[in-house]
Amino acid sequence: MPTSIGHALAGAAAAWSADLVPGRRAWRTTPAGASWYRRAGNGLTLACMTIAAIPDADLLFRTHRTYSHSIGAVIGVAIAAAIIAARRDRPIIRVASMCAAAYATHLLLDWLAIDRLPPVGIQALWPFTDRWYLSGWDLFRQTERRHFLSRPTLAMNCLAVLQELAILAPIAAAIWSVRVKALAGLSTEMSGRDHPPQ
């Protein structure tokens, strides 16, 4: 299964993609010369990256790849994000879709990964079914969590991270570029509204 680094990168890319949908985005505009953190979406992007990696916390409870890796969990995240957005006077559908998309990338990456530890796959359609699903495409390498600091495990996990970066970084960079241009245009449009016509 992919590492937290790959999951976080995919979560950011999904959040930025969902943020490109037209609608109420004025609260997301950034002035020219703003910091990278602000242009990346401030805390919401960071939250989406965390949300994308958090399903693997189920390793602590010996329920790995079950209900936390399911469409039911994605729906739960969307509902929780919508409630938080409503309390903070943010666009509910936009924030909920960004968070849900980020969480859903975890399921997608795990579904596309090598998995040799039984039971194989994820319970992607829980609570509708308890079946386990795996694509068989083996796009992402198997990672090792036992003997974490041993040389073979470090080598295996480093190769996994490099492969994830090779696949996901260009996708995230392309989406980032489109998003920055879209928000720059929105920022120009918003500043134009602040000035009377010449």
How many separate domains make up the residues? 1
Task: State the end-to-end distance.
Answer: 58 Å
Order of helices and strands: HHHHHH
Q: Let me know the largest β-sheet.
A: none
In terms of DSSP E residues, the strand content is under 5%
- Globally, the shape reads globular
Give the oligomeric state: single chain
Arithmetic mean of pLDDT: 87
Number of strands: 0
The structural class is mainly alpha
Low-confidence stretches: 194-198
Radius of gyration: 19 Å
How many helices in DSSP terms?
Answer: 6
Name the helicity range.
55-70%
Describe this structure in words.
This protein is an all-alpha fold. It has one domain (4-193). Helices cover 57% and strands 0% of the residues. The chain has helices at 4-19, 36-39, 42-53, 71-87, 92-111, 151-194. The radius of gyration is 19 Å and the shape is globular. The chain starts with a helix and ends with a helix.
Features:
disordered C terminus, 57% helix, 198 residues, mainly alpha
Question: How would you summarize this macromolecular structure in one to three sentences?
Answer:
The protein is mainly alpha-helical. It has 6 helices and no strands. It has one domain.
List the helices and strands and how they pair.
Elements: H1 4-19, H2 36-39, H3 42-53, H4 71-87, H5 92-111, H6 151-194
Helix pairs in contact: 1-3, 1-5, 1-6, 3-5, 4-5
